[in-house]
Amino acid sequence: MNQGVVRVIKDLTVIVEFDDLVPDIHELVVVDQLGTQLLVDSLEEGGRAVCLIIRTDFRIQKGMTVTPTGKSIEIPVGDKMIGRVVDALGAPIDGIPPVDDSDMQHRSIFTLPERGGTAKISKPEILETGIKVLDFFAPFVKGRKIGIVGGAGVGKTVLTMEMINNVAKQGGGLSFFAGIGERIREGHELYDTLKNTGDILKSTCMFFGQMNENPVQRSLIALSAVTLAEYFRDEQKKDILFFADNMYRYIQARNEVATMIGQVPSEGGYEPTIFTDVKTLQDRLTSNANGSITAVQTIYVPADDTSDPAVQMIQHELDSIIILSRAVAEQGIRPAVDLIHTTSSLLTPEVVGDRHYLLSVQVQELLQKYEMLKPIIAIIGETELSPADRADYAKAKKLIEYFTQNMNVMESMTGKKGEYVKRDDMLKGIEEIIV
Q1: Cβ atoms 180, 244 nearer than 8 A
Q2: Are 289 and 370 members of one domain?
Q3: How far apart are CA 309 and CA 236, in angstroms?
Q4: Lowest-confidence range among 316-325, 358-367, 377-386?
């Protein structure tokens, strides 16, 4: 039997020395005396393997023996996973007994899927969210990626929950939620919200690696969720709605792991392989000839600095970027969307139609003029403006008020009934304001 011996222990990093065959990278090895699983991260000279403790266990001691398993982290894939809440290893954390996976396929979370050909070219299909500001400025198109960007406490998770509630309720697909390093409270709220809204939970797969987990699990949770999503897309030809909260926490977890194993950080202070890690994950969240994955990702902005290199890197992978602003939130506007800086490459006549596109151009002109007039009004007052400027300023104020909206998922907290506005009604409302 090929066994190794623990030589060095540093936080969640364990260096194991093997005399014979060294295990492969990403292979699982087990500490014999404890049954604790370690993940081989890299190999060093002298038959040494740098391993990571997946589930925190401080009982490991030098001299303990370690046995390779010959396999990587594999999660069960199949219909039995629908409606369940699991961790990075596919183990249930919803208080319900584990699924019987004896007759299920298992897939390694590190194995990249085969290229299934490019997605079929068809007319873009807009998925209505019922949220006015999203449907107008950042149309939600099937098979594309949308990002919700903002600092702490500006409403990223609430907006995501509302999209899950509104879009998933329409049916026709399978929903995924990957909780990456966010607050445990938010995970409970999301689970309770889906549970109380009827059948949504029965068509949702949930993966949680929240703040209470160590960085190894938090860095793996997105890969586990994507692996199951790929199975349903490729094997069952399903259309997937994939929600990730929060993609920046994935980078943070990877940074913590990189620091533990002694990697030299890049110029921006992030791990040296940050570009590869982000790009590999994003490339798996794509559509192909078998089915589609429509991804919604929240992105935390450290210190409200949207120029952060990691934030910029994630944004380059997205089709639509919704910017949530603290300045807007402080005015009591919900959702706190920065209407000027929110952008979408999908806001074209070919995707949304001429009517929507022309309206978007007019609205952007009014909002730009509003921002230009604000400092002038602060000095001389609104009454000193020309009649045309005064009319445009009033229209812009009405538009900003129009795009505020009560959320269905917040009804129990705010006491205000949530709104769902159909796309055509939203366009009519905007036309009435700007005409």
Answers
A1: yes
A2: no
A3: 37
A4: 377-386
Considering the candidates 183, 238, 390, 423, report the single residue annotated as catalytic: 183
Residue 209 vs residue 120, higher pLDDT: 209
153 with 290, same domain? yes
Whether 182 sits among the annotated catalytic residues: the reply is: yes
Distances (CA, A) of 123 to 141, 271, 430: 10, 40, 25
Distances (CA, A) of 252 to 205, 208, 219: 24, 16, 8
Arithmetic mean of pLDDT, 229-242: 94
Per the annotation, the verdict on 334 as an active-site residue is: no
Convert the pLDDT of each residue in 3-37 to its tens digit. 999 999 999 999 999 988 899 999 999 999 999 99
Residue 292 burial by Cβ neighbours in a 10 Å radius (0-12, 13-18, 19+): buried
Does residue 393 share a domain with residue 331? no
Q: Final residue of a domain: which of 347, 367, 402?
A: 347
* pLDDT the model gives residue 121: 57
Residue 172 has pLDDT above 70, yes or no: no
Question: Do 202 and 105 share a structural domain?
Answer: yes
Say if residue 271 is in the same domain as residue 369: no
Domain end (from 347, 363, 379): 347
- Cβ-contact 393, 370 below 8 angstroms: yes
Tell me which of 142, 144, 156, 334 is the catalytic residue: 156
CATH number at residue 312: 3.40.50.300
Catalytic pick among 182, 186, 213, 271: 182
- 147, 262: one domain: yes
Active site residue 365: no
Residue 167, token pair as written in the block: 């879009």
Non-local (6+) Cβ contacts of 289 within 8 A are: 116, 117, 118, 119, 120
Q: Identify the domain containing residue 401 by its residue range.
A: 352-434
